[in-house]
Write a structure and sequence with these properties.
Layout lengths: L1 H4 L4 H12 L7 H16 L7 H8 L7 H26 L1 H14 L3 H17 L5 H20 L8 H30 L8 H10 L6 H14 L4 H14 L5 H20 L5 H14 L4 E2 L2 E2 L1 H13 L3 H10 L9 H15 L3 H10 L5 H17 L3 H17 L6 H17 L5 H13 L6 H7 L3
Helix pairs in contact: 2-3, 3-5, 6-7, 6-8, 7-8, 8-9, 9-10, 9-11, 11-12, 11-13, 12-13, 13-14, 14-15, 15-16, 15-17, 16-17, 17-18, 17-19, 18-19, 19-20, 19-21, 20-21
Length: 463
C-alpha cells in the first residue's frame, strides 16, 4: 500500500483523500480512516506508525486486535486506490471519456446527443498535435460508433464503411509494424525467433499504397525495413526524411524509439566497417537532444549520455562534447549524476591525451554501476600503458582479472574484458624489436572474436 501511495505526487494524494471520502465511491468510514491515517503516517516517516497493531488501534480504538480485519480493510482500500488511479488516467485524455459517452448515447439511441458529441469528438481529434497510433485508433472508434448508430437508425445511406475499414487498417498496420520493430530489436540481442503471423501481409499491404498511407505508418514501415536489412540505405534515407517532417506529430516517447531504431541501423553499418556512419549517429543524437526525445520525466539516461559522448569523441568534436558533458549533467538521475559526469569527463580528457586530468577522475570515483567500473578500469589501463607506468598497469590488470571472476552478472561481456586483460599483458611485456612475437600478437589481436578495444591495440602496434 505504501509503495502504491509512493507512485502518487502530493497533489494526487490530496485528490485521493477526497476520492475516498466521496460516498459515491466509498461508504466505509473505517476505510476513510485507514486512508487518512496512512497518508499522515507517510509524512511522519516513522516505521513504528506503520506497525499492524498501531494501525489497528488508530482505526478501532475499542476493539481487540484482529489481523484479518486489518487485512480486509487494506484489501478494500487498495482496490479503491487502483480505481482512483485508473479514473485519473482515463480523465487525463478527454477523447476516451467522450468515446465512452458516445457508446452510451448510441446504446440509448439518443440521436441529438450522439450527433453533437460525435462532432465534438471529431473536432477534438482534429485539434490533436499528434497523428500517431492513438490518433488512428480513436479515429477508428469514432467511425465505428458512427456506423453502428446509422445502422441502428436504418439509415443505410449514411453508412461509410470505407472510412471504418480504412481507419482500422491504418491503426492495425501501425501497431503491427511497431511490434515487429520491437521484435527485430529484441532478436538482435537475444537471438529469439518470433512467428511472423500476419506480418508479411501487412508489409505487402503497406508497400502497395505507400503514397496514400498516413505518414506515421510509412515511418514505422521504413523503420522495420532498416531493422530487417542493415544494407537498405534507401529506406534509411526515407526514414530520416520522415523523422524530420513528421517528428512533431509523434509523441516524444514513440519518437525516441524511432531515433533508437535509426541509431541501431547506423551502429550495424559501423560494425560492418563503414565508419562514415558515425556522422549519422552523432547527427541523430544531436537532433534528438534538440527535440528533447531522449528526456524521460525530465531525465537523460546515463547510457544515452555515455553514447553521445562516445559518438562526439570519435569525430573529435571536443568543444561540443565538453559543453554537452557539463550542460547535461543536471539532466542525469541524481543517483548516478556524479559518477557518470566524472567518467565521461575522464573519457574526454583521455581522448585529448590529457592523462593528468583524466586519471584523478577515475581513481577518486566509486562507480555505482558495474559496467562503469569495467569501462573505467579499461580506460585506466590504457592510460598506464600510454604513460609507461608498467608496474601500476600490472597491478591493475591482476586486480581487474579478480574483479571479472568475482562478478557473475557481466554475462557475455566477460569474454571481451578477459581478452582485453590477456592482450594488454602481452602488449606490456612485448619486445617491439622482436618481429616474430610482434607478428604473433598482431595475428591474435586481429583474429580474436570479441574485442571492443581492437583499434587501440592495433594503434599501439603501429598498424
Amino acid at each position: 500500500m505504501i509503495q502504491l501511495f509512493g507512485l502518487l505526487n502530493e497533489k494526487e494524494l490530496k485528490s485521493l483523500g477526497e476520492f475516498i471520502e466521496s460516498p459515491f465511491h466509498n461508504k466505509h468510514k473505517e476505510v476513510q480512516a485507514l486512508c487518512h491515517y496512512l497518508l499522515k503516517s507517510m509524512k511522519l516517516k516513522q516505521k513504528k506508525h506503520l506497525e499492524a497493531e498501531v494501525i489497528f488501534k488508530a482505526i478501532y480504538p475499542n476493539k481487540k486486535f484482529a489481523l484479518k480485519d486489518l487485512h480486509h480493510l487494506f484489501s478494500y482500500l487498495y482496490k479503491l486506490v487502483e480505481e482512483f488511479i485508473a479514473l485519473r488516467e482515463w480523465q487525463a485524455n478527454p477523447l476516451p471519456s467522450q468515446l465512452a459517452l458516445l457508446k452510451f448515447y448510441n446504446r440509448k439511441k439518443a440521436e441529438k446527443n450522439f450527433k453533437r458529441l460525435e462532432q465534438q469528438s471529431r473536432n477534438a481529434l482534429d485539434r490533436l498535435a499528434y497523428r500517431d497510433l492513438n490518433y488512428h485508433k480513436m479515429l477508428f472508434e469514432i467511425n465505428f460508433q458512427s456506423y453502428l448508430f446509422s445502422e441502428s437508425q436504418g439509415r443505410k445511406e449514411d453508412i461509410n464503411l470505407h472510412a471504418v475499414s480504412g481507419s482500422l487498417d491504418n491503426s492495425y498496420c501501425i501497431e503491427r509494424l511497431k511490434i515487429a520493430c520491437y521484435q527485430l530489436s529484441h532478436k538482435a540481442v537475444f537471438k529469439t525467433e518470433y512467428e511472423e503471423g500476419m506480418l508479411q501481409k501487412v508489409i505487402d499491404f503497406v508497400e502497395d499504397k505507400i503514397e496514400e498511407n498516413p505518414p506515421v505508418l510509412n515511418l514505422y514501415f521504413f523503420a522495420y525495413k532498416v531493422l530487417y536489412d542493415s544494407s537498405d540505405e534507401i529506406s534509411f534515407r526515407k526514414m530520416r526524411t520522415s523523422m524530420i517532417s513528421e517528428g512533431a506529430k509523434i509523441r516524444a516517447k514513440d519518437l525516441k524509439e524511432v531515433y533508437l531504431f535509426a541509431i541501431n541501423f547506423c551502429i550495424r553499418r559501423i560494425n560492418s566497417n563503414e565508419p562514415e556512419y558515425i556522422n549519422e549517429v552523432f547527427s541523430l543524437y544531436k537532433s534528438g537532444l534538440e527535440n528533447r526525445v531522449f528526456l524521460e520525466n525530465g531525465l537523460l539516461s546515463k547510457w544515452t549520455y555515455n553514447n553521445i559522448v562516445i559518438a562526439g569523441l570519435k569525430l573529435k568534436s571536443f568543444e561540443w562534447v565538453e559543453g554537452f558533458i557539463h550542460d547535461y549533467k543536471s539532466y542525469l538521475d541524481p543517483m548516478h549524476r556524479e559518477s557518470s559526469f566524472a567518467f565521461n569527463l575522464a573519457k574526454f580528457y583521455f581522448e585529448k591525451q590529457d592523462f593528468k586530468s583524466a586519471m584523478p577522475l577515475l581513481l577518486q570515483m566509486e562507480y555505482d554501476d558495474i559496467f562503469h567500473n569495467l569501462a573505467a578500469k579499461t580506460l585506466l589501463a590504457k592510460m598506464y600503458f600510454e604513460l609507461s607506468e608498467f608496474d601500476a598497469l600490472d597491478n591493475l590488470l591482476n586486480s581487474f582479472k579478480v574483479y571479472i571472476l568475482r562478478n557473475k552478472v557481466i554475462g557475455y561481456h566477460k569474454e571481451n574484458y578477459k581478452n582485453f586483460i590477456r592482450l594488454s599483458t602481452k602488449l606490456m611485456n612485448l619486445n617491439m624489436d622482436d618481429a616474430d612475437k610482434r607478428e604473433k600478437l598482431l595475428s591474435d589481436i586481429q583474429t580474436v572474436k570479441i574485442l571492443t578495444e581492437r583499434k587501440w591495440f592495433l594503434e599501439k602496434l603501429e598498424i
